[in-house]
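User: Fold both of these, please.

Assistant: Here is the first one.
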Amino acid sequence: MTTFMAFLHHAGFVGLTAALAAELVLLGGELTARTVRRLRFADIAVGLSAMTVLAAGLLRVFYFEKGAAYYFKTWPFHAKLTLFIALALLSIYPTVVFAKWGKAIRRGEIPAFEAGTVRTVRMIVHAELAGIVLILLFAAMMARGVGFSG
């Protein structure tokens, strides 16, 4: 079961990265009704992947790996978890934007694709992808015992 939880955790990160990359590509092209539908699908994939990462990660911490007492004593774990939560909060804005665009499309209207909003959403997605890189660094540090305080 430990191996499966590790697989699920890593697969969640791969899915999260792929979904964010898809959002970034879609946001870089022409925004149409089809693009908005795809963005909403990618955003759902982001959410499901993030929930998979969190659930599998917490199960690993509390039940399948070295134990919570080990992880909570390491600063890379705290950095990883804090960054993950910050990125999750940051992802709320794109989700709200995509939902608004989707509502307009369903009403047969053309959403207001304001350049500033699109730029902000792209910047957030870039930040989320950069955050994943840092999370992976912290994970590698944890695996090597960096920051273990006792």
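And the second sequence with its predicted structure:
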Amino acid sequence: METMIPINSVPELYVDNEAAVKLVQNPEFHPRTKHIRIRHFYVRERVLDGELEVKRVPTYSQLADILTKPLDKPRFAALCSKV
């Protein structure tokens, strides 16, 4: 049986950086974030418009690590089995 994705579902972006999640969810200006250019607020705009959700995932569960980091064999095998 095929799994159907509801048309009205919102895409989810999973990140392992808690600061990034807080920055996206809190639209206030902070002196520590003034160096971030406007183009980097694209994700924040999509979240505020309800077009995207950003959720935190623990570092050990981040599947993207298999594509972005050098891993030892056990970690590589564990992530391969989850993909």
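The two ends are 20 Å apart (CA to CA).
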